[in-house]
Design goal:
This protein is an alpha/beta fold. It has a domain of 210 residues: NADP-dependent oxidoreductase domain (TIM Barrel). Helices cover 42% and strands 14% of the residues. The chain has eleven helices and ten strands. It is globular and about 55 Å long. The protein binds NADP nicotinamide-adenine-dinucleotide phosphate.
Length: 309
């Protein structure tokens, strides 16, 4: 009986070891390393309830980079998942890259570090690997504008980095003008700009502008309209588009995997969200093929400047 149990455990460990994908890393402009694919975590209450298990599955599959935000209301569950995988001996804290974000209602300089400390307490961590300003827009609790300049907010972000509470700092949803103004008025440049990029919103200029300035682009909502959204997608690319299917068949991949590879091959870091074990495994299985320049151009041609938001 005991030996059957032992064999079962051994087989489970072998299965995890064999099916784990190694995600490559790149350097940020501050010298820290970041895995080039992460797990998105924004979702419904049902997703939040599944998040602890989803983190366990993701780490087993090879994910080492997790993207959350105070807005998502899931930092506690993500922290529980992280504690599980560390306690199970699958990873050490330093193997993980955890990103969280400052919400718009905490943009005053002296609110930034306390807001991060609250996120850290929910996550059960001493530091995050990356802290982002979620959006350049500041708001009051009632949702109206607080008129706080993001340059002021950035001073709080720089303090968070100096205190070691965030190893790297960056922004999200910043446009070209905002990036330039931040670069011209900061001591520490942002390491990352997390923006919406997918085949229906290729953001060619904004992506190049960031990359030319050594700011890594993290691509959110990477599947765009390939997956169902609460928005009409009449003009947008679908998962069964013949040109996409043709590329997918060439590599023996799904069209979703092709789109993730397209973002990686454009030098970005996609953060696909899934709380489903099989889809998580599918989404990370993109490191055994590479698109040609023509295939990247084909996918670029689907651009319709359509945001899912
Ligand atoms: N900074 C920002 O302002 C911002 C904004 C939006 C998003 N984000 C971040 O980016 C992450 C990703 O964006 P997103 O969640 O909007 O969109 P996404 O990752 O493009 O798509 C997620 C949706 O696709 C489904 N899905 C995942 N893998 C699939 C597959 N292989 N086949 C079919 N369906 C699949 C998921 O359902 P299942 O979970 O059921 O698989 C979910 O409904 C977010 O979770 C969040 O971390 C950041």
């Amino acid at each position: 009986m005991a030996s059957t149990k032992f064999m079962g455990l051994l087989l489970a460990v072998i299965h995890v070891a064999m099916s784990k994908v190694e995600v490559p890393k790149i350097s940020l402009n501050d010298g820290n390393q970041i895995p080039i694919l992460g797990l998105g975590t924004y979702g419904s209450a049902k997703d939040i309830a599944r998040m602890r298990q989803a983190i366990n599955w993701a780490i087993e599959a090879g994910y080492r980079h997790i993207d959350t935000a105070s807005l998502y209301g899931n930092e506690v569950e993500i922290g529980q998942g992280i504690a599980d995988v560390i306690n199970r001996g699958l990873v050490k804290r330093e193997d993980l890259f955890v990103t969280t974000k400052l919400w718009n209602d905490k943009h005053a300089r002296d609110q930034v570090v306390p807001a991060l400390q609250e996120s850290l307490s929910r996550l059960g961590l001493d530091y995050v690997d990356l802290y982002l300003i979620h959006s350049p827009e500041s708001e009051k609790a009632d949702g109206t504008s607080a008129n706080i300049d993001y340059l002021e907010t950035w001073q709080g972000m720089e303090e968070a980095k100096r205190l070691g509470l965030a190893k790297s700092i960056g922004v999200s949803n910043f446009n070209i003008e905002q990036i330039d103004r931040l670069l011209a008025n900061s001591n520490i440049p942002p390491a990352v700009n997390e923006i919406e990029v997918h085949p229906s919103l290729t953001q060619t200029d904004l992506v190049a502008h960031n990359q030319d300035r050594k700011i890594v682009v993290m691509a959110y909502s990477p599947f765009g309209f390939l997956v169902s959204r609460n928005r009409p997608s009449a003009v947008s690319l679908r998962a069964d588009d013949p040109a996409l299917v043709k590329i997918a068949q060439k590599y023996g991949k799904t069209t979703g995997q092709v789109v993730l590879r397209y973002l990686i091959d454009r030098g970005m870091i996609p953060i696909p969200k899934s709380t489903d074990q099989n889809r998580q495994r599918e989404n990370i299985d993109v490191f055994d093929f590479k698109l040609t320049r023509d295939e990247i151009e084909t996918i670029n041609s689907f651009n319709s400047n359509t945001s899912i938001f």
